[in-house]
Amino acid sequence: MYCEGDSWGCYMPMRLSLTSIEPDPIERVVQLASESAVVIFSVSSCCMCHAAKRLFCGLGVNPTVYELDQEPRRQEMEKALSRLLDSSQTVPVVFIGGKLIGAMDRVMGSHINGTLVPLLKEAGALWL
Question: Strand, helix or coil at 29?
Fold first, then answer.
């Protein structure tokens, strides 16, 4: 937060590029991930991404999906996701309640061990 006279305001740190002022890719990922209960970063032609989307829809969850192949800064976003995951695999990447869950292996592991549904309920993505 910053204070200017009597007015208070918030700002998001931005990185300056020569062509435009846009947020850092990791900051953009975190911002987008925090805007919905369930967020999936995907590529439309990826079969594992399709499986992740079907899993959540099958559970009665309507995830927000960002198709990276439609993102102008795709490579930067994929690199940011790769850094967040600490892995070379970039999609699908799932966030629940703004928290990074991980790639499909972590999502399926959570589903199989019974921790996925409680996470979804806690995030407000499921009511039952």
Answer: helix
